[in-house]
């Protein structure tokens, strides 16, 4: 997994040649994954992909009802065991 960086962070060394990505390391650590409103990947799959990372919070997002925002889905991930 990689983290997106703005091009203004040019002081970071060992960047990807494209200039857009920097690998997670001691300086940059993954702390949160936000599964967007259209994400249909089960939380168990995300959790499996995150093995080896410490203290990563996984949040399911939804579209806000009255504004043009994406907010935390308080119902969490849907139960896909069907």
Short structural description:
This protein has one helix at residues 43-49, and strands at 2-4, 21-23, 32-35, 57-63, 70-72. By secondary structure, it is mainly β.
Q: Give the tally of β-strands.
A: 5
Mind telling me the C-alpha Rg? 16 Å
For the termini, the CA-CA separation is: 29 Å
Helix content class: under 10%
Q: What's the structural domain tally?
A: 2
Mean pLDDT: 76
Q: Describe the largest sheet.
A: 3 strands, mixed
Relative strand content = 15-25%
Classification by helices and strands = mainly beta
SSE sequence, one letter per element: EEEHEE
Tally of DSSP helical segments? 1
Spans of 5+ residues with little confidence (pLDDT < 50)?
1-13
Q: What characteristic shape results from the CA principal axes?
A: globular
State the strand order across the main sheet.
Answer: 3-4-5
Structural commentary:
The chain is mainly beta. The protein folds into two domains: 1-29, no CATH class; 31-82, no CATH class. 9% of the residues lie in helices and 24% in strands. The chain is built from one helix and five strands; from the N terminus they run βββαββ. The chain has one helix spanning 43-49; strands spanning 2-4, 21-23, 32-35, 57-63, 70-72. It has a three-stranded mixed beta sheet. A two-stranded antiparallel ribbon has the order 1-2. A hairpin with a 6-residue loop joins strand 4 and strand 5 (70-72).
Provide tags for this entry.
globular, 24% strand, single chain, disordered N terminus, 82 residues, two-stranded antiparallel ribbon, mainly beta, 3-stranded mixed beta sheet
């Amino acid at each position: 997994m990689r983290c997106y960086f703005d091009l203004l962070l040019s002081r970071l060394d060992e960047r990807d040649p494209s200039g857009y990505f920097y690998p997670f390391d001691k300086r940059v650590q993954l702390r949160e994954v936000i599964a967007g409103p259209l994400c249909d990947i089960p939380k168990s799959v995300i959790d499996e992909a995150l093995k080896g990372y410490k203290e990563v919070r996984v949040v399911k997002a939804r579209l806000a009802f009255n504004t043009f925002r994406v907010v935390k889905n308080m119902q969490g991930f849907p139960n896909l065991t069907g």
